[in-house]
Amino acid sequence: MTFAFDPLSLRLPAGHFIDGAHVADTPRAELRAPSTGQVIGQVPVADAAMVDRAVTGARRALAASGWAELPPRHRLVALHRWAELIEAEAGTLARLEAVCSSRPVAQAATGDVPVTAEQIRFFAEFADKECGALAPTGAGSLGFVAAEPYGVVGAIAPWNFPISMAGWKLAPALAAGNAVVLKPSEMTPFSALCLAELAVRAGIPAGLVNVVQGDGPLTGAALVGHPGIDKVSFTGSTRAGAAIMENIARSGIKPMTLELGGKSPMLVFDDADPDLTADCLERGILPNAGQFCVAGSRIIVQRGIADALAERLAARFARPRPAPTWAESPGFSPIISEPQLRRIDGIVQAARAQGGEILCGGARFDCEGSFYRPTLIGGVSADNPAVTEEIFGPVATFQTFDTEDEGMALARHPNYGLCAGLFTRDLSRALRLTRRLEAGTVWVNRYGRSRDHILPTGGWKASGLGKDLGREAFAANRRTKSVLIDI
User: What is the pTM of this model?
Assistant: First the structure.
């Protein structure tokens, strides 16, 4: 099956999706394809009034549909139907995903879209299986803990994996009995609009899944600060997460889940399997051109194998070739925008100016579009900007150590604690160091999530609050109530 397409011939959804229907709004911003830089459409920016319309509609639909009070099995069945429709429309969704994002269409069709359907099914199963708890009280009373949905969840998804990140937000919130107002990134809005359409077709009551297009400063701020939003879920940069926390603190206290930035270490000991390790290090930074929050951008290697591993990585980093996201065969992904590419290159050049050695890459590809060469930087100190700053591009630093304590010191980051990779054949060392690594997720002799969905993800320190995925994500969309009855 071919997924290649002409981006200019694609029919793009327009406006917002509120109360089960598309809502027209004045286009205010050009949308460019990062693969070529060409304008492929225009998108609206929802103002406070449009956000209020979506939130008010969500609250009205939640009450009218009785979604939270339905037998939980009903929610499960509707969510399963939604997952089936998503799989059936994989080609359409993949093209909408690829046209203005960094995701190659074939990868979106065979990876991102099926994973989104899997996530929806995973959370659907919690609807009629997770329950409150009976409390051990005295014989003259009955105590229990009841779990209830919050109401309306305000969700903001990023541009790097638009459809699967939307699934992270929508699936647990709906399964728990909430309505959602989702703001996708203004750079990648189209697959979310299609998801909302499919939700209504699946039998999820109109108005429970709403999508407002817009930017962070206007639309995002109006959404998270709206008094009708009961809980906020956000995935994005640490800087944007801090702004959301500030907004919520000003406008009223409400719970939030924040998955934020990362600067994850990959700690390699000299007893590690060299082939497996090289594969994992490559997969930890090059997919999606390094534009993912768990990217293993700090490679830290014990000195005994450092030279050999650096040589292997430089050869692997030199192989990728760019291709438009709509091409038949997937190529190396573009950087999402020219400003982001210039930021990446600025950090690389600053790293070089401060003593870093460019082992490979260090410049954009000589082609149209926003493509940056995979880059490996050695000889960097702990305060080098390539080590300290989240680059969000195909750039990794390469540092060496002698002792275990030296390696752990290099792995520790003053701000971030999202993920960490550990490579060793020594089981005792692996178990010991997983306890010492300051990260919300540690992968040993692998790098990257599986498709089990049961393992929660979330960061320590400035990498976030709360968890996505897993049982924890479902629980995060419900609040508990303690009840004590005298008999």
Answer: 0.96
